[in-house]
Design goal:
By secondary structure, this protein is mostly helical. Helices cover about 70% and strands about 0% of the residues. It folds into 3 domains: about 100 residues; about 100 residues, Serine Threonine Protein Phosphatase 5, Tetratricopeptide repeat (Alpha Horseshoe), CATH 1.25.40; about 55 residues, no CATH class.
């Protein structure tokens, strides 16, 4: 079993503590380490309960206490499940920020949801990372997937926590959690989750596709293209993959314009919708070449 989810361990480092880390758990140095680890975890559970009751100031205080407890744990017992401890630190820090933002928003806009900020042009690949359907789907996963597509990652993660508690190793849930991290801009966390998934599912196209998006946004064009080409080795008729290869090549400095054109035409031939931005870039390249 592999690590679940970074930030979104979200509570569910609970899930991860035991079996997920069976391969790396070191011998317990002292009873106090285990007791303090569990005590710190209980603070997270209390914070989550307060958050679910919408008692946000209390939740913030409890998440702060949990953060400090895990920070002390890391200092006093650096070899005792350090990865879980660091995940929980990230999770607590994220939740404190989210809850503070909620308090600010509720004071200014009591009955309105914040409008998601538009993605920057270099992030447009991210828009297509979430599969349109999942192999195993229920009402919660459908709702979470749609929220991620709407870039409402915080709401999606709250739904996914419940699914993680039921089964921390469920592929669909882990993938959606990673997707939520990507669309919210938490690329380092998303990368960790996806690389863990790629160990468990080394030839799964959805994992490769999401990894490509993260690599691309982080500026690693070569690795992004490599992941997409691996998908085409499995299924050369993926219009979305050809489309994204074209997008990456057109964004990259010194990108292969003719290869981008070729992949874009293949995407169209396979049923993909025309894209004005890609066509404009291709036209610009043609105009520059004719000067």
């Amino acid at each position: 079993m592999k690590t679940l989810a970074c930030l979104l361990l979200f509570c569910t480092s609970l899930l991860y503590g035991g079996a997920l880390y069976a391969a790396q758990v070191l011998p317990e140095p002292a009873e106090s380490a285990s007791a303090r680890f569990e005590s710190a975890h209980m603070l997270i559970q209390a914070a989550e309960s307060a958050r679910e009751r919408q008692e946000y100031p209390a939740a913030i205080e409890l998440f702060t206490d949990a953060y400090n407890a895990h920070l002390a744990m890391l200092a006093d017992f650096p070899a005792w499940q350090p990865r879980v401890t660091k995940f929980r630190l990230n999770y607590c820090r994220e939740q404190i920020g989210i809850l503070n933002a909620r308090l600010r928003n509720s004071a200014v806009l009591p009955d309105t949801d914040p409008t998601p900020a538009p993605l920057q042009p270099e992030q447009r690949l991210v828009e297509n990372i979430v599969p349109s359907a999942m192999p195993r789907e229920n009402e919660t996963l459908t709702r979470a997937r749609n929220l991620i597509r709407e870039r409402r990652a915080d709401e999606a993660r709250e739904l996914l926590v419940q699914e993680l508690r039921r089964d921390p190793d469920d592929f669909n849930v882990r993938l959606l959690v990673a997707g939520a991290q990507v669309v919210s801009g938490d690329y380092d966390d998303a990368l960790f989750l996806l690389e863990e998934l790629s160990v468990d599912y080394p030839r799964h196209p959805d994992v490769m596709h999401m990894l490509a998006a993260v690599y691309f946004v982080q500026g690693d064009t070569g690795r992004a293209l490599n992941e997409l080409k691996r998908i085409l080795d499995i299924n050369p008729n993926r219009a979305d993959v050809h489309f994204n290869i074209a997008s990456i090549l057109l964004h990259a400095d010194g990108g292969d314009i003719e290869a981008a054109r070729r992949h874009y035409r293949l995407a169209l031939a396979l049923g993909g919708a025309p894209d004005a931005a890609i066509e404009d870039r291709l036209d610009e390249a043609d105009a520059a070449g004719n000067q």
